């Protein structure tokens, strides 16, 4: 896995395939590995890049630099160093926030955005939202990382037949650096770019699991404020949609990306 020094931090990345560039941006406590179910679908058509954000995966875990804006600047530097032209950004959860930040700060950069189970802000506005944010921060800070990992795995993959996924992702999340994980979590709460959505100048696809943390209606509300944007909902899916429903997810992603890249999706007709 190659690496690059970006803003004083050593970041690991992958770079495979040929064609228009697609940059996959993972979520909180995750890494490039979480896109394993997308690579076989994307690589026949695209140059696919993944990046372990600072504090995550095999990248450095510095003591400073944890903010959504800083993550977005890391992505921008990565794009510039590799001279990627209008890359298509695909971000899940925190990765979607990073994509929103990059697209509002530098609207000329992305060719498109695919936002998965995410939103343009995580700002508590109601008493129940303040309580939920406080509860999440509290338990993340007092519980061992292994306990957090086990709880997340059970929440995201609750079915009996998902035991293998539960075990795989619990083990991955146990590998997180606790300090970097908590710093990244704190970076999310209170972040937002909702007031700048009109700056986004590229097509946007928003994908939501029907059982995601945040209701589909929340996503519908912000999609209405975007220009060239649409919302797709995948049934029987929670927060890790690319993992728990990879075939449906990959189909939507290809149907969105291929026409923009000049391909015809004749081989990817919906059944």
Instruction: From the alpha carbons, calculate the radius of gyration and give it in angstroms.
Output: 17 Å
For the record, the count of structural domains works out to 1
Q: Helix/strand/pairing class, anyone?
A: alpha/beta
Question: Biggest β-sheet, characterized?
Answer: 8 strands, mixed
What sequence of helices (H) and strands (E) makes up the elements? EEEHEHEHEHHHHEHEHH
As for the CATH topology, it is: Rossmann fold
The CATH homologous superfamily: Alpha/Beta hydrolase fold, catalytic domain
> What's the arrangement of strands in the largest beta sheet?
1-2-4-3-5-6-7-8
N- and C-termini, Cα separation: 36 Å
Mean pLDDT: 94
**Which second-level CATH architecture applies?**
3-Layer(aba) Sandwich
- Please estimate the helix content: 25-40%
Q: Which residues form runs of ≥5 with pLDDT under 50?
A: 264-271
Tell me, what's the shape?
A: globular
- The number of E-state strands comes to 8
Protein name: Alpha/beta hydrolase
Domain AB hydrolase-1: 20-241
GO cellular component, one term: membrane
Keywords: Hydrolase
